[in-house]
């Protein structure tokens, strides 16, 4: 019986090739896009899935009462270890790390690498897979390191790098030699232990190495809020049970400022990746899932419209089968079988399209999507259920509508589409166009916001600004003087306008914050101001604009500082220039020498924070050497800079980035969403137009005699075409009226998430409406032109 249903289904598909092609193409497009989005969502949700004891693994995250105080991803350094040591009934294991980067060398190979000095529990606690070395004793001593397979190949040209020695340039004690005692297998999936805040770390070091980067006993200082902390709960322990223990440790050990402003939250590693950064990844998943659902829904609506619209071709078949004893349940099964067969063909086609488009979408999402052959059992099950679900949903309405027809009228083959079916088709078309216009308008607003980011005045000049990121970090007066000499030598290059040493560049990663008060305002609440440690050339190199006073110089008093306008306002300084500000509980007084106009240091979507520029001479911390080029021959200028760098730092890599590229990277999430929305908009219109081709083709065939009569009575081609255009004008107008308010609410809500945003304008709505009308009218006109131009005799003979 099943084979007979399938045979009839295949014959029907072969007989109506145009409609079969439209249905298969529409469903294939919808399922391909849905599969790509589903695989991406699956991969995003599998981050951390490979970690050992995942349900018990938690990240300790800080919540701060005062803005701009510390990052939420860091906690007091000893906290995780103290919880484990003092509350063993609650904590099974722990891990702390200070993720950073440093220059590493092996012979003539020099690279800037991400590193994680941290507790040696990392391998056992999370079940990281080692290719070489002993997982139970991965670190033999304090001079041991564990590296990734990729790092081993980069430095040593082989994965088995056991007992090889790497030289790492530390901040405090210069160059240190480390022996490789373990090699980790390259991760199949990302995790939030070796990849922190988006930065992948290639080298794991023992916790004692934190001293070389933060200072002696930094991991034991309760007021050092610089480390990422993880804990593994004992089986059966809930996160809420730790709150009292955490509060007790903080109240006993931390200073008053931390006690008053910091609270600690436990975030499960199973959801940490989705929920961090204000749930950015989770929001992206929801948006893409909704868009994919819209695309798939349009393909299903196409199938239903065409199936109902072409039902007249199958009326006699249905009637004869009823006469010969066919039950309605059998007829319903037949139509559902046809729908599932057609969906199955579309599914095979969608798999081929998936493999074809997988690399493109991987670039859009910045994520490697697996081959179909690598799908997990869950993904295979999901896809089979998707195909079966689409087939049943697409076929269920036509099946019940067509099999409910009156027997006598069916046998005569003269049933007309009733009001209910016509209304359903019209409403489904309105729904299709509404969804397409909704997505289109929202896409246009996303593009407008991204253009707003890139065209908005930043307050600094990011063009022709190259930043060397592999600066050796010898944080003392000797190291600073050496770097200043190189800065001055590079500045003499004919292609260089200026150069600056700093701890920060406008990439959103500042050097922390400091509480400040105007001198004499001891009763006021301190204002947390983001700290930027720079030399005297920073304003000139980055093109900052002075609102008053001047920027400090390298020879000025180290207590001279510069504020931005937001800091002057937050501190309520009257004149600003010449006023003194203090740090609470400190005798140090800082003198304001200049005020720079506000500039966007971080994502434009965030409000500009109060900032203070500290003279490098007072605090010799640095990470970057920024160089403004004045020559149009950038390659030649870079070659000159590199020659100076290699001469002065022969054992350091020459790693650099351009500031405009770093700026674009801050908006990767918005750019990714925009590209995905662009693709969805294009697919929506392809599916709609495919469906319109089928519906209009059926309508032209059904009304062929009417067109013939009109032509005999004197109607010209233009009036015939207008007849069909008028029928769809109301549909598109209704779709716009429904879509525009919804699009306005959604777009406005999304834009409200940005401190600086584009304005709501009627332009995107008009663009969407005009393009929708234009494409639909063009398609209808082209299709109806042939019928309108035909000989009326042939049209009147049409049956």
UniProtKB/TrEMBL annotation:
Q: Which UniProt keywords apply?
A: Cell membrane, Membrane, Transmembrane, Transmembrane helix
Bilayer-crossing regions: 21-42, 284-306, 331-354, 374-402, 423-446, 679-700, 720-742, 762-782
Write down the membrane topology: Multi-pass membrane protein
Location, primary (coarse class):
membrane
* Cellular location(s): Cell membrane
Q: Which InterPro entries match?
A: ABC3_permease_C, MacB_PCD, Macrolide_Exporter_MacB
**Which domain of life, per UniProt?**
Bacteria
Where does the ABC3 transporter permease C-terminal domain lie?
290-404, 685-792
What positions does the domain MacB-like periplasmic core occupy?
A: 20-248, 435-632
Protein name per its UniProtKB record? ABC transporter permease
């Amino acid at each position: 019986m099943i084979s007979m249903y399938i045979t009839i289904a295949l014959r029907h598909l072969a007989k109506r090739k145009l409609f079969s092609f439209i249905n298969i193409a529409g469903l294939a497009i919808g399922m391909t896009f849905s599969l790509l989005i589903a695989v991406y969502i699956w991969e995003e949700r599998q981050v951390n899935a490979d970690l050992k004891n995942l349900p018990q693994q938690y990240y300790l995250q800080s919540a701060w009462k005062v803005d701009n105080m510390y990052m939420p991803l860091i906690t007091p350094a000893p906290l995780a270890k103290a919880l484990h040591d003092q509350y063993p009934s609650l904590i099974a294991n722990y891990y702390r790390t200070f993720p950073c980067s440093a220059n590493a060398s092996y012979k003539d190979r020099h690279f800037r690498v991400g590193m994680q000095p941290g507790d040696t529990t990392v391998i056992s606690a999370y079940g990281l897979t080692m290719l070489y070395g002993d997982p139970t004793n991965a670190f033999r001593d304090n001079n041991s390191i564990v590296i990734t397979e990729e790092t081993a190949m980069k430095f040593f040209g082989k994965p088995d790098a056991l007992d090889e020695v790497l030289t790492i340039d530390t901040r405090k004690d210069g160059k240190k030699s480390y022996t490789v005692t373990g090699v980790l297998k390259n991760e199949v999936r990302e995790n939030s232990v070796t990849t922190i805040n988006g930065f992948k770390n290639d080298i794991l070091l023992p916790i004692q190495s934190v001293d070389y980067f933060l200072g002696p006993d930094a991991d034991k200082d309760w007021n050092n809020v610089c480390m990422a902390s993880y804990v593994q709960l004992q089986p059966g322990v809930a996160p809420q049970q730790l709150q009292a223990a955490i509060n007790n440790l903080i109240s006993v050990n931390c200073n008053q400022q931390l006690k008053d402003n910091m609270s600690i939250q436990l975030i499960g590693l199973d959801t940490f990746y989705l929920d961090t950064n204000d749930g950015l990844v989770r929001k992206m998943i929801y948006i893409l899932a909704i868009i994919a659902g819209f695309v798939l829904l349009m393909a299903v609506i196409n199938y239903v419209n065409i199936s109902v619209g072409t039902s007249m071709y199958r009326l006699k078949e249905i009637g004869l089968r009823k006469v010969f004893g066919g039950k309605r349940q059998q007829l319903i099964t037949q139509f559902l079988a046809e729908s599932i067969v057609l969906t199955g063909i579309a599914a095979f086609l969608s798999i081929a399209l998936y493999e074809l488009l997988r690399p493109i979408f991987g670039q859009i999402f910045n994520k490697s999507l697996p081959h179909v052959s690598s799908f997990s059992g869950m993904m295979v099950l999901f896809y089979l259920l998707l195909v079966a679900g689409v087939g049943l949903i697409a076929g269920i309405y036509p099946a019940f509508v067509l099999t409910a027809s009156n027997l006598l009228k069916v046998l005569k083959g003269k049933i007309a589409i009733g009001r209910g079916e016509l209304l359903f088709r019209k409403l489904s078309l309105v729904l299709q166009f509404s969804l397409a216009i909704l997505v289109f308008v929202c896409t246009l607003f996303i593009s407008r916001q991204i253009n707003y980011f890139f065209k908005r005045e930043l307050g600094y000049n990011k063009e022709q600004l190259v930043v060397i990121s592999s600066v050796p970090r010898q944080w003392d007066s000797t190291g600073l003087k050496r770097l200043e000499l190189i800065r001055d030598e590079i500045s003499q290059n004919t292609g260089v306008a200026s150069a600056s040493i700093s701890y920060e560049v406008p990439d959103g990663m500042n050097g922390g914050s400091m509480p400040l008060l105007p001198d004499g305002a001891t009763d006021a609440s301190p204002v947390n101001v983001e700290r930027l440690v720079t030399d005297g050339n920073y304003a000139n190199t980055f093109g900052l604009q002075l609102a008053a006073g001047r920027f400090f110089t390298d020879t000025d008093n180290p207590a001279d500082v510069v504020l931005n306008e937001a800091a002057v306002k937050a501190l309520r300084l009257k004149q600003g220039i010449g006023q003194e500000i203090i740090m609470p509980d400190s005798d140090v007084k800082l003198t304001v020498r200049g005020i720079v106009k506000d500039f966007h240091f971080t994502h434009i979507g965030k409000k500009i924070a109060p900032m203070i520029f500290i003279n490098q001479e007072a605090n010799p911390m640095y990470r970057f050497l920024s160089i403004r080029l004045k020559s149009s021959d950038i390659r030649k200028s870079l070659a000159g800079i590199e020659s100076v760098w290699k001469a002065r730092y022969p054992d350091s890599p020459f790693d650099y980035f351009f500031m405009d590229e770093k700026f674009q990277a801050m908006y990767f999430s918005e750019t990714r969403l925009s590209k995905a929305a662009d693709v969805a908009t294009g697919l929506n219109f392809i599916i709609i137009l495919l469906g319109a081709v089928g519906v209009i083709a059926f309508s032209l065939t059904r009304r062929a005699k009417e067109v013939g009569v009109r032509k005999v009575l004197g109607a010209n081609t233009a009036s015939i075409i207008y007849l069909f255009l008028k029928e769809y004008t109301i549909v598109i107008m209704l779709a716009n009226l429904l879509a525009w308010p919804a699009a306005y609410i959604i777009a406005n809500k999304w834009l409200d998430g940005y401190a600086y945003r584009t304005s709501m304008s009627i332009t995107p709505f008009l663009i969407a409406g005009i393009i929708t009308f234009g494409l639909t009218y063009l398609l209808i006109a082209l299709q109806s032109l042939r019928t309108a131009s035909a000989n009326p005799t042939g049209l009147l003979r049409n049956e």
